[in-house]
Specification:
mainly alpha; rod-shaped
């Protein structure tokens, strides 16, 4: 008996009398399981390789985030270094150090 048939039987059973909590829980559980399987199949993640595919995608996303974080850190580092270099050059000009080098 496949999942759709099991769900149909549970719904039919629920319609015969006042359903109790266990029967309603079983109907909801079967329906949600069936819906999840359909959603995964539509996304192309219903085969055996899907776990590896999702794992690879997570690793790729993690690497992308790390690279993005590294790029921002490098940009900020170079900006701070540039400002400090300009500050040192400005102080040297203000103190007349270029005249001492002549």
């Amino acid at each position: 008996m496949d999942e759709e048939e099991a769900l149909a039987r549970l719904i039919a059973l629920a319609g015969t009398n006042a359903p109790d909590a266990a029967l309603l829980r079983a109907v909801v559980d079967e329906a949600s399981e069936l819906g999840a399987r359909r959603a995964l199949a539509r996304l192309g993640l219903a085969d055996e390789a899907a776990r590896d595919d999702v794992s690879d995608l997570r690793q790729l996303l993690g690497a992308w985030r790390d690279a993005k974080k590294g790029v921002w850190a490098a940009v900020i580092d170079w900006a701070v270094r540039g400002m400090l270099a300009l500050l040192v050059v400005g102080l040297a000009m203000k103190l007349g150090l270029p005249g001492l080098l002549k």
